[in-house]
From TrEMBL:
<feature type="domain" description="Helix-hairpin-helix DNA-binding motif class 1">
    <location>
        <begin position="38"/>
        <end position="57"/>
    </location>
</feature>
<protein>
    <submittedName>
        <fullName>Helix-hairpin-helix motif</fullName>
    </submittedName>
</protein>
<feature type="domain" description="Helix-hairpin-helix DNA-binding motif class 1">
    <location>
        <begin position="68"/>
        <end position="87"/>
    </location>
</feature>
<dbReference type="InterPro" id="IPR051675">
    <property type="entry name" value="Endo/Exo/Phosphatase_dom_1"/>
</dbReference>
<dbReference type="GO" id="GO:0006281">
    <property type="term" value="P:DNA repair"/>
</dbReference>
<dbReference type="GO" id="GO:0003677">
    <property type="term" value="F:DNA binding"/>
</dbReference>
<keyword id="KW-0732">Signal</keyword>
<feature type="signal peptide">
    <location>
        <begin position="1"/>
        <end position="24"/>
    </location>
</feature>
<dbReference type="GO" id="GO:0015628">
    <property type="term" value="P:protein secretion by the type II secretion system"/>
</dbReference>
<dbReference type="GO" id="GO:0015627">
    <property type="term" value="C:type II protein secretion system complex"/>
</dbReference>
<dbReference type="InterPro" id="IPR010994">
    <property type="entry name" value="RuvA_2-like"/>
</dbReference>
<dbReference type="InterPro" id="IPR003583">
    <property type="entry name" value="Hlx-hairpin-Hlx_DNA-bd_motif"/>
</dbReference>
<dbReference type="InterPro" id="IPR004509">
    <property type="entry name" value="Competence_ComEA_HhH"/>
</dbReference>
<dbReference type="Pfam" id="PF12836">
    <property type="entry name" value="HHH_3"/>
</dbReference>
Length: 99
């Protein structure tokens, strides 16, 4: 019985730790002009390949001027933008531009 209690407590603690991490990353804004591939991948329905395209786009074209400019990147549809528009920001110095 003691062993079961220890295992159960460990499982509950791990579930709590992962859920806190998941919820914390969902609310965090992402500056698409400076975000890493990992940070960009935290956006809904954006994986590593599309994240790499975003980085490549901003390196070749320059910084995004407004959040909806991310739709110029192959793989970012209107629907994907709508899913993420509350989290996508453009920070220019001390000024943060949000959609």
């Amino acid at each position: 019985m003691k062993r079961f209690t220890i295992v159960a407590c460990t499982v509950i603690a791990l579930m709590f730790a992962f859920s806190v991490y998941t919820f914390a990353s969902v609310d965090k804004t992402v500056n698409i002009n400076t975000a890493s591939i990992k940070e960009l991948s935290s956006l809904k329905r954006i994986g590593e390949k599309v994240s790499q395209r975003i980085v490549d786009y901003r390196e070749s074209v320059g910084p995004f001027e407004k959040p909806e400019d991310i739709k110029k990147v192959k793989g970012i549809s209107d629907k994907i933008f709508e899913l993420n528009k509350e989290r996508i920001v453009i920070k220019d110095g001390a000024v943060e531009k949000k959609f």
